[in-house]
TrEMBL record:
Protein known as: L,D-transpeptidase family protein
Species name: Gluconacetobacter takamatsuzukensis
PANTHER family, alphabetized: BLR7131 PROTEIN, L,D-TRANSPEPTIDASE HI_1667-RELATED
CDD domains named in the record: YkuD_like (cd16913)
Annotated family: Belongs to the YkuD family.
PROSITE patterns listed in its UniProt record: LD_TPASE, PROKAR_LIPOPROTEIN
Length: 469
């Protein structure tokens, strides 16, 4: 991954610290624990950080927040109608690619042997956990790998469950926590079609779509109308204006090796940097550049590179520099950027996963012109000056770097991409309940699944409405 100038490292440390603070002080944990009444419910919930009810684990933090709003007294004893409506919503979790058994659906359906207290807690945990899964994903950011950093706006699911209880349609209030974007709706429809298909590959199709429904839940519920979307799995960038695609280009992304994969994150493109120097991080310099210097003492001078303090190496600006002639400044804790490249031939390759994580853009001048809202000639003139200049965008533009292996393209067509980074299996294991009830352990399935096989599962009579109009 590329570091452009020293202050970026400081910015990364600050961003990392802010993220840690936000996760520590999120809705599930911020502030002190509420005082609870001396009730059976209150004493049970406050007794331990982990709790199992009728053999099933429950989310104590969510339960504590919810019952604090009710003085730690039972909620569902006099609300059977509302409970039944919410149970029906939970039983339909499969429509969102989620296993209803994650939310005690079977136990609650057969719950004649449950004690009143156990049923009370399981009902609340089912509704809260399902609401939380719709609101921010069944695999929220604190349970993912570090490079899967996308997360939507925070939602107080305890307050939302209370709103559902008071609503004439409780299920609708909870269902509304899921995304309502055209892509999410199309993926849900495609999931129904896959499950109805007798064709081979239907199970793989359903798994792929369920995993990408989960990734959609990691995005804001209302995407900015002006935005940049980089789908690493597709190796493509799309710029949207007023929710309409206006520019699309190929990109080079991170290698398949885990340490060099492009992460999933959100940032703001703040400026275009013309004639940027390339500061090669110390780990990359140590691993790749220093061996070349040992073999060839003239390597640094020939490539216009100089040694920097701390083991970094800087390549001077120029048409042959690693960042090309344009870099797009988008501060983020991964130090991953969009930039030009002198190696334009790479964009003719089908496999463009060859970077250390940063994203090389095929047509950076056209992209810069759209971001800067200037003609391409103005971009060319700025570059022709030959000096390193930072040019602020008139309005910063959000960029989402995603990894969608099933998605709806700008023409409204459902498409599948291979899971090159082998990330799907880990997510899939968290979307279903193992028979033992144990927490799932990810197992990577490296067998290739072709797009043709997956799409075949969609080609059957029925409601295959996967194109958006």
């Amino acid at each position: 991954m590329t570091v452009v100038r020293p202050q970026i490292a400081t910015r990364s440390i600050v961003a990392r610290s802010l993220l840690a603070l936000a996760m520590t002080c999120g809705l599930a944990a911020c502030g002190t624990n509420p005082e609870h009444a001396n009730t059976e419910l209150g004493n049970l919930i406050d007794g331990a950080p982990h709790l199992t009810v009728a053999g099933e684990p429950v989310n104590v933090a969510l339960l504590r927040r919810f019952y604090a709003r009710h003085d730690f007294e039972p909620v569902w004893t006099g609300r059977q109608t509302e409970a039944n409506a919410l149970l029906k919503a939970v039983s339909r979790a499969g429509e969102n690619g989620l296993d209803p058994e994650l939310f005690h659906a079977g136990l609650l359906r057969q719950g004649t042997d449950l004690s009143p207290l156990d049923r009370e807690l399981l009902l609340s945990d089912a509704f809260l956990s399902y609401a939380d899964a719709l609101a921010r994903g069944a695999v929220p950011v604190e349970r993912r790998k570090d490079d899967e950093a996308l997360t939507p706006e925070p939602v107080d699911v305890a307050a939302r469950l209370d709103a559902a209880i008071d609503s004439p349609d409780p299920a609708a209030v909870i269902d509304a926590l899921a995304p309502s974007t055209p892509t999410y709706r199309a993926l849900r429809q495609a999931l129904r079609t896959c499950r109805q298909s007798p064709a081979g590959g239907a199970a793989g199709c359903a798994r792929r779509i369920a995993v990408n429904l989960e990734r959609q839940r990691w995005l804001p519920r209302s995407l900015p109308p002006d935005r940049v979307m980089v789908n690493v799995a597709e190796e493509r960038l799309v710029l949207y204006r007023a929710d309409r695609p206006v520019f699309s280009t190929r990109v080079v992304v991170g290698q398949d090796e885990e340490r060099n994969q492009s992460p999933e994150f959100r940032a703001m493109i703040e400026a275009s940097l013309y004639n940027p120097p390339w500061v090669i991080p110390g780990d990359i310099a140590q691993r790749e550049i220093l061996p070349k210097i040992r073999r060839d003492p003239g390597y640094l001078a020939r490539n216009r590179m100089v040694m920097m303090p701390g083991g970094e190496i800087e390549q001077r600006p120029g048409p042959d520099a690693g960042l090309g002639l344009i870099m797009f400044d988008m501060p983020n804790r991964f130090d991953v950027y969009l930039h030009d490249t002198p190696d334009q031939y790479l964009f003719r390759r089908e496999n463009r996963r060859i970077s250390h994580g940063c994203i090389r853009v095929q047509n950076p001048r056209d992209f810069a012109a759209l971001l800067m809202r200037q003609p391409v000639d103005a971009i060319n003139q700025g570059i022709a000056q030959g000096t390193t200049t930072r040019n602020a965008l008139p309005v910063p533009v959000p960029v989402f770097v995603v990894y969608m292996t099933a998605f709806v393209d700008p023409d409204g067509v459902l498409r599948f991409q291979p899971d090159f980074y082998n990330r799907d299996a880990d997510i899939w294991q968290h979307l279903k309940r193992p028979p033992s009830g144990r927490l799932p352990v990810a197992r990577t399935d490296r067998r290739p699944v072709s797009s043709a096989t997956l799409l075949a599962a969609l080609e059957n009579p029925g409601p295959p409405a996967v194109r958006i109009f």
